[in-house]
Amino acid sequence: MPRYPVDFTPDLRRLKSWPSMKNSLWRQPYLIELTYADNFRLVEDSIRGRNLKILEVGCGTGFMSLELARKGHDVVGIDRDQKIIRIARRTMETDPYSKNRGSLRYEVADFNKWSDIPETYDVVLFSRVLHDLPRPKKILSKAHHLLKNRGRLVCLEYAYDRIDRRAATWLYQIRRALELTGGYSSHLPEDPEEGVENILRENLYGRKEHINKFEEMRQPLEQLFVKERLSWHCYHCWDVFRDMRVPDRKRENALASLFKRMEQLLIDSGEIQPVLFRFVGTKASA
Question: What is the pTM of this model?
Fold first, then answer.
């Protein structure tokens, strides 16, 4: 868990530099634009209609729920971390755009134990949280239960098991080059083969904690919801961004933008496998 400054405000419309948050993307506005803000645009593009009732499961610091409420939707964001929800509520209470906002409520809750009236929501959103939740089919069945007829499930998720050797090689090249020029905070092995193997071990077969694999999420998603869209997006570069330490901000911004465009090019050309997917589906009839 990162250490948050006392006045930390995770808000896509009030971005500023947070130099003390060295291991967080929130430390610089341009890193948020390339990551969290881009993810919000994917979510916004997946939602149709006005004045919808939306539930975000695992809302974290609440920036996505806040922005959805600003679009006129009535939003409930839940997360089991009390400290994070406290930050979300503080950000909501200081929102300068609150007059034109839909209703917004944050709750400290474990989704497994949380309950609401069946068929309450037009949209249920999971953003980079389903991979961490045990028994994803049970979780998604509960989301199905909470959705209205023809309600929509939006899932933006990390499929860690899809990282391949080509992606690990590309990541090592970028990280090692940054390290040699003083722009990276972590130390990598000098031997490329060892470095690539370390990346695969850290991200793939060396994990000690259980994280749901892609198929463990895809199968219940497609069983319970009528698939409208399944698309793949950049995510490998997020880890590079976290550890970048280029002193000149303009240069760091330019490099970060370049790395993301490079990743997209490699994905589009089939050179590497992407690991961030967006699933959009409609509640299937019982």
Answer: 0.95
